[in-house]
Structure formats: structure tokens, C-alpha cells
Write a structure and sequence with these properties.
Elements lengths: L7 H17 L4 H30 L1 E3 L5 E3 L6
Helix pairs in contact: 1-2
């Protein structure tokens, strides 16, 4: 099951496992639903982590000479 502290890479690995299990078709309907729900949560978590990483990488402000200067992002 997905954990809030799980890394992006671990979440993606688990998502890959879930996709393979669902594509194989050897799990019951109940298990398929549970796996789908877990995958949906993992997907949302990965999306959030990617958005946060993108913000950290692209958050720039213009310096006095017009060149980009990295701006410190406060932790939420």
C-alpha cells in the first residue's frame, strides 16, 4: 500500500507492478478495484512530487542585469 513518505521512484515501481497485475488479468474483481484505487493514489502522489520538483527547478527571478537568478523557495 502507498505510504506518504514513499519516494517517487518507489511509487513509480509500485505503479508498474500494479499495471502488470491488472494487465495480466489474474486478479479478482475486488483485488482489481483495490489495486486500481492504490494506483490512483500513487499516481496523484507522483504528480504532486513532480509538480513540486518542477517548481523548485523553474522558480527563477530576474537579476539586476536581466539574467535569471535562482530564487530561494520557502518550505511549506
Amino acid at each position: 500500500m502507498a505510504k506518504k513518505s514513499q519516494t517517487f521512484e518507489a511509487s513509480m515501481e509500485r505503479l508498474d507492478e500494479i499495471v502488470k497485475l491488472l494487465e495480466n488479468g489474474d486478479v479478482s474483481l475486488e483485488e482489481s478495484i483495490r489495486l486500481f484505487e492504490e494506483g490512483t493514489k500513487l499516481s496523484a502522489q507522483c504528480s504532486k512530487l513532480l509538480d513540486e520538483a518542477e517548481l523548485k527547478v523553474t522558480q527563477l527571478m530576474q537579476g539586476p542585469d536581466g539574467t535569471p537568478v535562482e530564487q530561494e523557495i520557502p518550505n511549506a
